[in-house]
Design brief:
about 90 residues; alpha+beta; four-stranded antiparallel beta sheet; globular
């Protein structure tokens, strides 16, 4: 459903995956590794896959091109992170 505009305005950080990150859903958490495995992304790509962190908490809020965590307020304008090659 995307990242709420308010979260983006507070500050986010795009970084490579380091390992151990998890994504919060309504009632559970799932590791970034598991999300990438479910999408059949090869291990050599998973190790540095881009993730988006909340700048204030350091919590993973999205995995680029794969998954966005859960956010309560559905009325906000939302964005889904997609990475594209520049050349």
């Amino acid at each position: 459903q995307g990242i709420p505009k308010a979260i983006i305005e507070q500050g986010v950080l795009l970084t490579g995956r380091k390992g151990g990150e998890s994504l919060a859903f309504r009632d559970f958490h799932k590791t970034v590794k598991t999300c990438l495995q479910e999408q059949k992304i090869p291990p050599f790509l998973r190790q540095n896959w881009p993730v988006i962190l909340d700048k204030n908490t350091g919590q993973c809020i999205a995995i680029a091109n794969v998954q966005v965590g859960f956010f309560d307020n559905l009325s906000d304008e939302r964005f889904f992170p997609m990475l594209e090659e520049l050349f």
